Amino acid sequence: SLTGAPVTLKILENWVPRVSPYFDKEHYTYAGHRIVIQESIEYLGAVVWPGALALCQYLESNQEQFNLKDKKVLEIGAGTGLVSIVACILGAYVTATDLPEVLENLSYNISRNTRNMNTHKPEVRKLIWGEGLNEDFPVSTHHYDFILATDVVYHHTALDPLLATMEYFCKPGTVLLWANKFRFSTDYEFLEKLCNIFNTEILAEFPEANVKLFKATVREN
Question: Name one GO molecular function term (predicted).
Answer without folding.
Answer: methyltransferase activity
